[in-house]
Every structure is written in C-alpha cells, then in structure tokens.
C-alpha cells in the first residue's frame, strides 16, 4: 500500500485482529520482504507507484514456494476481475471500513 492513510487504516485493522505485519509501499519493496518473510496472508494494492499489483499477485500464484493467501485491494472496483484472474483469493474494496468484513475476507482466503 503506497497511501500512508490507507496503510495506517489497514495496519490498525491487522493489529486489532492480532496480526503481525510488514509494510511495503511499492512492488520492489514487497519482493524484498517476500524473499525473507513467509506471510500467511499478503494484501496487495493494485495501484502501486512502480507497477501493477496484479503482476505481483501473478508472481506469487506461480511461485514454487509455500503459497500465501493473496488478497487484492483497490479503490477501483472494476479491477476485481483482473486481480482474481491474476490469482488473488479475494478483493477488498477501498476504503476498508469494517473490521468484521476485513477479518472475514482474510479468514476466507486462508486454507482450511
């Protein structure tokens, strides 16, 4: 997430859910984090300053390593189909205003 305000809102939602987080404000930074950390869930903003988040989602879906649940987020609901086609397990429309909806989407994306 490249927006400081959206990132802070999502950080608070994650913390209220008991999650530990790593923030990346661009695809390059996300790739660096993903080389070190193996998160259970990855939330990818589709509109990042250095590229299309759907490309990162496709990379994660094609990776040979243990898969993370991947959720896409955008303020443009018309990008949901692109995110799902790239391999996202869910789509969060911004702004995310409900802790319950956020938690439900994350839990639905996790393997049983």
Protein architecture, described:
The structure is a single chain. The protein has about 110 residues and is an alpha/beta fold. It has one domain (about 5-105): Response regulator (Rossmann fold). Helices cover about 45% and strands about 15% of the residues. The chain has helices at about 5-15, 25-35, 55-60, 80-85, 100-110, and strands at about 40-45, 45-50, 50, 70-75, 90-95. Strands 1-4-5 form a three-stranded parallel beta sheet, with helices on both faces. Helix 3 (about 55-60) packs parallel to helix 4. The radius of gyration is 13 Å and the shape is globular. The mean pLDDT is about 90.
- Radius of gyration over alpha carbons? 13 Å
The sequence of SSEs as H and E is: HHEEEHEHEH
Could you tell me the mean pLDDT?
91
Task: State the total count of DSSP E strands.
Answer: 5
- What is the CATH domain class? Alpha Beta
CATH fold title: Rossmann fold
Main beta sheet: strand number and arrangement?
3 strands, parallel
The total domain count is 1
Shape: globular
- Outline the low-pLDDT stretches: none
By helix and strand content, what is the structural category? alpha/beta
In helices, the fraction of residues equals: 40-55%
Give me the side-by-side strand order of the main sheet.
1-4-5
From the coordinates shown, what is the CATH architecture? 3-Layer(aba) Sandwich
Residue share in β-strands: 15-25%
